[in-house]
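Design request, tokens follow.
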């Protein structure tokens, strides 16, 4: 006689669950034994959940919410529950490592070169934990490899794996800067485009990064006409100079006027005192003399 399995309890109240089939005998419809769902859709009986045949058990068997019961059942079957946290997060781990490697082509990512000349394509990289067996590659327009090199360690210089005949390595990684720049010789108009410096460091779980330079090839360098700029700068500078000169002249004139007015006031006071003395008016020195004693 097959033992009926315990279906999971409904997550809402008031909705009946599957009715208990009688142990043994025939079910409704004349079929013997309890009705079973397909294997893929039947819930696994959690550990510790009493079966319906046990005395005092309920059909809607309650399991512990969350992860505790599923974790108990996991080791028995060798499966990991989808509700349990993953054992590792490789995606986050890779992104965290990737940010420790940085590649740079300088302050500007545009370079202009004269036709039939040599042009420098700069590239440097930095890493927080050092490097070992580092691989760097230069690509033209993201598809054509023009230089491929490897660096054993910080103490060794890069060695060539493959390159275009017109490309020369001019960098060095034993100094302070990890310089992996190249020079493109005898530049042609067809060389104009996008150049990508790609670096991969196996020591950092194969962290990789790249930087891009855009090369423009011209027949001759065009001189920039700065006439308008010079005129504007000259006019603005002249106006500022005139304003400063006007302020200085104004201060000098005001100072002279003030001195002149102060001098006139002193002259008026002095002449008024002399007139009073000569005419014997009140307040003169003659009246201020004391009378003789009897």
């Amino acid at each position: 006689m097959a033992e009926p399995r315990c279906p999971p309890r409904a997550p809402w109240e008031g909705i009946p669950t599957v009715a208990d089939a009688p142990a043994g005998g025939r079910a409704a419809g004349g079929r013997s034994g309890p009705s079973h769902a397909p294997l893929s859709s039947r819930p696994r009986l959690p550990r510790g959940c009493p079966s319906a045949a046990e005395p005092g058990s309920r059909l809607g068997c309650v399991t512990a919410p969350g992860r505790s019961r599923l974790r108990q059942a996991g080791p028995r079957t060798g499966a990991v529950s989808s509700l349990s946290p993953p054992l590792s997060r490789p995606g986050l781990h890779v992104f965290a490592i990737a940010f420790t490697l940085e590649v740079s082509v300088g302050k500007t990512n545009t370079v202009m070169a004269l036709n039939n000349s040599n042009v420098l394509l700069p590239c440097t990289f930095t890493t927080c934990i050092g490097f070992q067996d580092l691989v760097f590659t230069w690509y033209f327009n993201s598809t054509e490899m023009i230089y491929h090199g490897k660096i054993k360690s910080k103490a060794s210089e890069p060695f060539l794996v493959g390159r275009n005949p017109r490309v020369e390595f001019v960098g060095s990684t034993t100094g302070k800067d990890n310089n992996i720049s190249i020079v493109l010789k005898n530049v042609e108009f067809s060389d104009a485009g996008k150049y990508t410096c790609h670096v991969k460091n196996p020591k950092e779980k194969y962290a990789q990064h790249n930087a891009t330079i855009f090369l423009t090839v011209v027949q001759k360098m065009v001189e920039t006409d700065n006439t308008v700029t010079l005129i504007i700068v000259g006019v603005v500078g002249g106006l500022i100079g005139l304003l400063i000169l006007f302020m200085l002249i104004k201060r000098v004139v005001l100072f002279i006027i003030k001195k002149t007015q102060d001098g006139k006031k002193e002259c008026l006071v002095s002449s008024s005192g002399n007139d009073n003395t000569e005419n014997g008016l009140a307040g003169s020195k003659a009246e201020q003399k004391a009378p003789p004693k009897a």
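Comment from the thread starter after seeing the answer: thanks! DSSP finds three helices and twelve strands in the chain.
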